[in-house]
Amino acid sequence: MTQDLILETRGLTKEFKGFAAVSDVNLRVQRGHIHALIGPNGAGKTTVFNLLTKFLQPSRGTITFNGHDISHEEPAQIARRGVIRSFQISATFGHMTAMENVRVALQRKLGTSFHFWRPEASLHGLNARALELLEAVDLASYARTLAAEMPYGRKRALEIATTLALDPELMLLDEPTQGMGHEDVDRVVELIRKVSANRTVLMVEHNLSVVETLSDRITVLQRGQILAEGGYAEVSQDPRVLEAYVGVEA
Ligand SMILES: Nc1ncnc2c1ncn2[C@@H]1O[C@H](COP(=O)(O)OP(=O)(O)O)[C@@H](O)[C@H]1O
Ligand SMILES: [Mg+2]
Fold it and tell me: Where is the ABC transporter domain (predicted)?
């Protein structure tokens, strides 16, 4: 089987004082996929994200992105390569309007790529691109609204817009629908589907119906290790997965 892997970890391990939060994880994410990372609380999902973006240093193992070993790179280098984590790196500023938030993100992207002479770096170009991004997440009508005054679900959409402004090749979403009501969940699902068209998405998501709707592939973590992997139909019927989830519910 030919696989075009955008991201691969080998033996990825993170120990906190001898406790392995992530243990020998071989994660393989195929380019163009929406790949979900699921598992009970404490399974190590957020730690994996922190390792991928180098907010944490791995204790052992390697991380390869687009064929480059990025295991020893700094968070900023990894972001420049196009690995962007939403809701952390791209948190929004409450005292700025939706438009200003997206513009700041666009300026950051231009700042790191040194293409300041390009036409899109002009004030007009920035505004036009910012508006395009707001339209892409269905927020054009909020352009002049302060982020702090936006409803919760819309604010998460703004966070996705600011992440998109950085033009990620691999977008990491940590619980994109967390704390949302049904309508906002549906909206964000559509949004993720739309923005994933020409990029790869790796997401941690607790809402299994969202996982079912969106994922091309799912990796299930338990106690820091990969428990199962596959499509939703396969993984959701795996007795070990059911037990892992039921075990936690009980
Ligand atoms: N900085 C840390 N120091 C010590 N233990 C940690 C730290 N971060 C996470 N852990 C532990 O690692 C395990 C995995 O945590 P986490 O990655 O947050 O899980 P998940 O996101 O799947 O709920 C948990 O047992 C957690 O308590
Ligand atoms: Mg977590």
Answer: 7-248
